[in-house]
Design goal:
Length: 466
């Protein structure tokens, strides 16, 4: 019988980071990963991480010249639907990294700290004691069925959430599976511009209405033109080809490589913990609502988890959900509230058509340097900002540049943003009262809906999406 303090399912960014931190704190740590080393995190080549976030969470920032590092750039503007207006949207440095290579580097750091990583080990089921508490898991290797026991099991398996989704319905941790409406399907076009006089960095930016962007791509390519959307890759590609490339003027280019990948686009689970168990990273839907990025954003919860679990492993025989609960309450009232309250506002903003959005960019309503420039520190919208938004949109309605119907959706988004924030402020400090809180949350999110509700109905009909 193999016994550990910490058992982690999944050896990508969150899994390797958590393994390194727990092993460095002196705990026996095992990571099981279904892929073999050469196949880990191969959906994307280049991925971006903010340098400040990397430093904050103890992630190595490779020096220039390191083969893992491809480039460094600073900030990207928010761009209007027809490309006429560019608004400042923060100026923090971003590092472009080769994802597989960087994660394998993280894995080596975890192993040097004392963690064991077992590749080619596929999770099959959780193991429970006579009280129904998680005490380990079963997994398959080339040598057959194996079992490992631990004082806490962490699901870091990403979108499949292979352990979380097997939990019983009575668990405090939700066991739902992500469906196509809960996933952000990302398509990355690595391109080369035919006009060599063009500086690709002049074209960097984010186009919120299409959920698309232009970003650095590294040696051999001029840029990544990326697009994301709900339902399927086909939906994302259709938006790219029939809307984005039609409305935004880009220099002529040739596509040299295409990559596809997925990220959760769903509110976080209500509780990350139960007896002997924690869900982390994509398995807990800890991604930014604006873009679906989760590599560093999930580590806010990770830092709390390391602190709480490390103390409990020193002094507690068994890690019950009551003892682990502060991970929930601390996270939900900070980043959980910020991320999930932003979702209904985004739904309101992307409900406007391209002409309406262009009008707002032109008149510094919502899409202004003042508001977007604060995104480095988290998007903060005060009462005066809301009043200015409504005033500016009302003028647009009078000029017939904006529909009253769209204003209603934006106001609804603002109201629901406040409702979500208020609810998360009231997150229970202990499991007592959680079921009552959860019932309120379920009702509220049923009213709000999902970001998939904002997808283009004509494209959905064309692709046969119901």
């Amino acid at each position: 019988m193999k016994k550990y303090d910490v058992l982690i399912i999944g050896a990508s960014t969150t899994g390797c980071w958590f393994a390194q931190r727990m092993a460095a704190n002196g705990f026996r740590t095992l990571v099981i990963e279904k892929e073999l080393p050469d196949d880990v995190s191969r959906s994307y080549d280049i991925f971006h991480m903010g340098q400040g976030e990397m430093e904050q969470f103890g992630l190595e920032v490779p020096e220039e010249g390191d083969s893992v590092r491809e480039f460094r750039f600073t900030g990207s503007p928010m761009i209007s639907p027809y490309g006429e207006y560019r608004k400042y949207a923060g100026n923090l440095p971003v590092i472009g990294l080769h994802k597989h290579d960087y994660i394998m580097k993280m894995a080596e750091k975890a192993k040097k700290s004392g963690a064991r990583i077992l590749y080619g080990a596929k999770f099959t089921k959780l193991l429970y004691d006579e009280k129904g508490r998680v005490i380990g898991c079963e997994y398959e290797t080339s040598e057959g069925t194996q079992q490992a026991y631990a004082r806490i099991v962490s699901d870091c398996s990403g979108i499949p959430s292979v352990a979380r989704t097997t939990l019983p319905d009575t668990s405090a941790v939700e066991n739902f599976k992500l469906t196509p409406i809960d996933i952000f399907y990302v398509v990355l076009y690595y391109v080369e511009y035919l006009d060599k006089s063009i500086n690709p960095r002049d074209l960097d930016g984010f186009f919120m209405q299409y959920k698309s962007w232009s970003a650095p791509a590294g040696e051999g390519y001029d840029a990544i033109l990326g697009i994301g959307g709900s339902y399927s890759y086909a939906y994302s590609e259709e938006v790219f080809n029939t809307q984005f490339m039609k409305n935004v003027t880009f220099p002529e280019f040739k596509v040299k490589k295409v990559e596809k990948g997925m990220t959760p686009w769903h509110r976080s689970v209500y509780s990350f913990v139960d007896d002997g168990f924690i869900a982390m990273g994509d398995a807990a839907c800890l991604t930014k609502p604006t873009c679906g990025e989760g590599c560093t954003s999930s580590l806010v919860q990770g830092e709390i988890a390391v602190e709480v679990i490390s103390q409990l492993l020193k002094y507690s025989d068994f890690l019950t959900k009551e003892k682990l609960w502060s991970i929930n309450s601390r996270y939900m009232k900070v980043q959980g509230k910020d991320f999930d309250s932003m979702r209904p506002l985004l739904m309101g903003l992307v409900s406007m058509n391209f002409d309406e959005a262009e009008y707002l960019f032109a008149n510094d309503v919502i899409f202004s340097d003042k508001i977007l420039g604060g995104m480095d520190d988290g998007l903060v919208i005060g009462a005066n900002d809301v009043a200015d938004m409504v005033k500016g949109i009302t003028k647009g309605i009078a000029k017939k540049k904006f529909r009253a119907e769209t204003l209603g959706k934006i106001v609804k988004g603002l109201v629901n943003m406040i409702r979500v924030g208020t609810l998360y402020d009231a997150y229970p400090e202990t499991p007592d009262g959680f079921e009552e809180w959860k019932a309120k949350a379920d009702k509220l999110w049923e009213e709000i809906g999902t970001l998939a509700n904002t997808c283009d109905p004509e494209i959905k009909e064309k692709l046969g999406i119901e």
